[in-house]
Amino acid sequence: MSRLQLLNSTDSRKYITNKRSRFKNKDILGEGEDLVSIVAYCLLPNHYHLLLKQNVDNGISQFMQRLGTAYTMFFNQQENRSGGLFQGKFKATHLSGEFALPILSAYINLNYAHHKIDTNVNLVRSSLYDYITDAGKACTNHICDQDEIANIINETGGLSEYKVFIKNASKSFADNKGNVINLDSFEF
Prior knowledge:
It is globular, with a radius of gyration of 16 Å. A 5-stranded antiparallel sheet has the order 4-1-3-2-5. It contains 7 helices and 5 strands, in the order βαββαβααβααα. Residues 1-29 have low confidence and may be disordered. It is α+β, with helices and mostly antiparallel strands. The protein has 2 domains: 3-93, Transposase IS200-like (Alpha-Beta Plaits), CATH 3.30.70.1290; 97-177, no CATH class. The chain is 39% helix and 15% strand. It has helices at residues 25-29, 59-79, 100-109, 111-114, 128-132, 146-156, 159-176; strands spanning 3-9, 36-43, 47-54, 91-94, 125-126.
């Protein structure tokens, strides 16, 4: 099964996470065939990251078309506007290599920290707590595939090791962007 990181952005800072929005996962996925499994996500004010596992041929393309169409229609209705929302086609990168899933899950789950986005000012949604609360046991509305999360956490040596790993990985990602992150600022 293919695993890809996906990225898309908008031309406005408010399109992805509008505080008035109540867009539900079922609005995107609908009923029927599971096209993809969501492994990790981060929704930021002007872009998003998804880590998806394709479950059927052409599943990621179909899912992304549904996501883009459904969210644009929803947002346009909420904001009484019309027209496109996203800047072009989504970008996808195939994953390969040792430790690729833990590294990318860290990058996606804490992407807001790498960009120094203040979560007290901006609405940010991430799959982080699906990962760090006893492998998602405390979460009741899972979006992410819990088996995939368990595999990623096991690859790092367990939940405690995953928490240390993502803190250190996030510091490296931020350093590469010229941002400074204090490891003590993470609350997990």
